[in-house]
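Researcher: Structure prediction, please.
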Amino acid sequence: MSFEDACRFLFARQGSRIKWSLGPTEGLLGVLGHPERGFPCVHVAGTNGKGSTCAFVAAELRARGLRVGLYTSPHLVSVRERVAVNGVLITEEAFADWTSTLQPHIERLDASFFEATTAIAFAELAARGVDIGVIEVGLGGRLDSTNVITPLVSVVTKIAREHTDYLGPDLASIAREKAGIAKPGVAFVTGERDPDVRRVLVDEAERRGADPVILVDAHRPASPNARPLGLLGRHQHQNAWVALAALNTLPPPFGPVGDAWPESFAHAYVAGRFEVRGKWIFDVAHNPDGARVLAQTLHDTDPARPRRALVGVLGDKDYLGMIECLAEEIDGFVFTMPHTAPTRRRWDLRRVERELGGLHVAHEFEPDFERALERVQTGAETVVVTGSFHTVGDALARLPGFAPVP
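Model: Predicted structure follows.
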């Protein structure tokens, strides 16, 4: 099986219904001899901030001379981005080999794309001899495919409304699902600020036997002698404090770290998180909470005007709330349709046009992504690309030299 064959086979399974069972993932890992049991892990969940928190944790563990595996999702341009060891991505050959090995079992177990890639990730990290893995939850927590591990620490960054059709209709329901990664006798760390939501997280973690349960004051300012963070925006201070708290629960040689951000946090990197490349800014904000953070960071950093934004959002998101958040910091919008957006989740641009009748900021609709990418640059001193991982990834793939994968 070639890499292209493997991608075609797995991507065709992206539409698989979420079955809410760890069974398929456990079945695939059983075929592989349970590689997830061969190395310790840090497990990170949350609505927003989990990718950045993983990046901070991984940066410090690497700075300690450890061989660090990282599993994140979704990817921007290539599925290879999801699995890395000390920054080196899984090769096309390895990805194809694991897929070929698992193909009959993926079909037998009716495993989804994410269940299959999770098994591949654990197999690859074990095969490459990692000292520790940093594992980002995909969706929710309790029944997420990654929740087959017993980590050294479980982390929930913060909670916002998302995937209410799967995780529940309110913040309390979502929090209970996220806290489902808590394990008996394992430290549980959260940076959630809302007292009601925090209480739900703590209650659920304690009910599951987590110990200790650590509440992080994620909104305290950076210490005066702190080095700059590798990720931009004041919201990254919150993620850095959560990452520090998680690191401080770890036994030697993984931790503890101390009371101040380590120097390694200045080297943390994750693509598409207020990533500035010349006049371009790429940010994967895909819900109102993420859009508010993006707007705040634009306000704080004050890039050159006029600022024009290329925006493509999935139809099941609160796209009106997102656009409203961004409108104060953007001088013109181009709304478009990224090629990689799943057909059944695409937003209806004609409907959006009707619903945005009162938007006071200049805006236009261009469903053709390539034309939209050209039009958004017209008259812009700063171009912001946002709305989803699909929008950012499709833009990076089409701009010469910008793709995050070599």
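Model: The radius of gyration is 21 Å.
Researcher: Thanks, that helps.
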